[in-house]
Specification:
- This protein has about 325 residues and is of the alpha/beta class.
- It has 13 helices and eight strands.
- Strand 7, helix 8 and strand 8 (about 220-225) form a beta-alpha-beta unit.
- The protein is globular and about 50 Å long.
Length: about 325
C-alpha cells in the first residue's frame, strides 16, 4: 500500500476510541428448555454496565457460540445493541468459519448496531499466516470500525510474526487491538508492544486473566473475563492500574477462583452461568448439551471461593 493511501486510511480512523479496560464476554442466557432467554440476556448487559464495564463482547467461547445458529446469534446481537448506551461499546465477535460467511456476519452485526468487531479465525483446519491475514483483510474492508484480533494459540491458528501484524495495522488502521487468548502470553505481548511502539494499538488479556498482573506490567491495556464474577474482576483490574502492589494482593485473592474456572471451556461456561443465576441476573443456568452442569461438590467449592472473595478489604467492590 502506498504512503499516501496509508495516511488517508489513518485520517479516516483517527477518531476511533481506544479499546481498553474490563470488557466481559457475555454468556448466552437460555430457558430451561434450551430456547433463548432474551430478557435475561438484556439484564446481563445491564449488570455489566452497572458493574462498570467499558464494553461487552458477544459471542465468545463463554457464549457457547458453536451451539448457536446464525439466526440466534443475530437475535442476541440485536438485544445486546439495544441494551448498550453511549458509555458501553458493543463488540461483536465474528466467529463464522469461512471468509464469505465472516464478511456477511460482519455486515449484519454492523447493521444491528455493533460499534466494533472482534474476529476469531477459522479453526477447523490449520491456517497459514497468509490465509489468516487475508481473512482479516476481508473483514477489515467491510467498514472502518475498530477491530480486535482474538489471537488464540492452537494447532490451527498461526503464530504471527509481529511485523506482519504491524503491516496490517498500517494498511488498515482500524485493526487496532489484539486479545491474547492463550497461556503463557507474556513474552508474546512484549514482542507485540515493542513492534507496535509509537502506533495506536491496544492489547487485551484473555484466558480469564490467568497472568493479568504480569501482562499489565508488560503493557496490556485491558482484560476480557467472563461475566459471572465481573465486579471482582473490575476491582482487581483497577487496583492493578492504580496501586500495583495492593492490586497483586487482590489478584492473588481471586487467583484460586480463576484456576478453578479454567479447567475446561465447558466448565467455565457452567461456572459463570451458575453465578449469574445465583446473583439474580439470569433465570436459568442451563447449558446446551453437549455441556455440563456443576455438581454439588463443585457448587460447594464455588461458594467457598466466593465467600473468600467477599471477605476482602473492600467487600462492596468484589461481588
Amino acid at each position: 500500500m502506498s504512503d499516501s493511501l496509508i495516511a488517508q486510511n489513518s485520517e479516516m480512523t483517527q477518531g476511533l476510541l481506544p479499546i481498553r479496560g474490563v470488557i466481559p464476554i457475555l454468556q448466552t442466557a437460555f430457558c430451561d428448555d434450551g430456547s433463548l432467554d432474551l430478557n435475561s440476556l438484556y439484564r446481563e448487559v445491564q449488570f455489566a454496565r452497572e458493574s462498570g464495564a467499558r464494553a461487552v463482547v458477544f459471542p465468545g467461547f463463554g457464549s457457547e457460540w458453536w451451539k448457536l445458529s446464525g439466526e440466534e446469534i443475530l437475535r442476541c446481537a440485536k438485544v445486546i445493541a439495544s441494551a448498550c448506551d453511549n458509555s458501553t461499546m458493543f463488540i461483536a465477535n465474528v466467529t463464522a468459519q469461512s471468509r464469505y460467511t465472516a464478511v456477511g456476519q460482519t455486515e449484519a452485526f454492523l447493521r444491528l448496531g455493533a460499534s466494533a468487531i472482534m474476529c476469531l479465525l477459522p479453526s477447523v483446519f490449520p491456517l497459514t499466516e497468509e490465509a489468516a491475514i487475508n481473512h482479516l483483510r476481508a473483514i477489515l474492508s467491510v467498514e472502518r470500525v475498530p477491530m480486535i484480533l482474538q489471537y488464540t494459540h492452537s494447532s490451527t491458528t498461526p503464530r504471527f510474526a509481529p511485523d506482519r501484524l504491524v503491516s496490517l495495522h498500517k494498511e488498515y488502521s482500524n485493526f487496532c487491538c489484539m486479545k491474547l487468548d492463550f497461556s503463557p502470553a507474556c513474552t508474546v505481548l512484549t514482542e507485540l508492544v515493542r513492534a507496535f511502539s509509537g502506533l495506536q494499538a491496544t492489547f487485551i488479556a484473555g484466558f480469564a486473566g490467568l497472568h493479568l498482573p504480569e501482562l499489565m506490567t508488560r503493557g496490556a491495556h485491558g482484560f476480557m473475563p467472563g461475566t459471572g464474577y465481573l465486579p471482582a474482576c473490575i476491582h482487581v483490574f483497577q487496583e492493578l492500574q492504580h496501586n500495583p502492589q495492593s492490586g497483586r494482593v487482590e489478584f492473588e485473592r481471586l487467583l484460586p477462583l480463576i484456576t478453578f474456572e479454567m479447567q475446561t471451556i465447558e466448565f467455565s461456561v457452567a461456572l459463570h452461568k451458575w453465578l449469574l443465576r445465583e446473583f439474580g441476573v439470569i433465570k436459568s443456568d442451563y447449558v446446551r448439551p453437549p455441556g455440563l452442569q456443576l455438581d454439588r461438590f463443585q457448587r460447594a467449592e464455588l461458594k467457598r471461593f466466593m465467600k473468600m472473595i467477599r471477605s476482602g478489604p473492600d467487600k462492596t467492590q468484589c461481588v
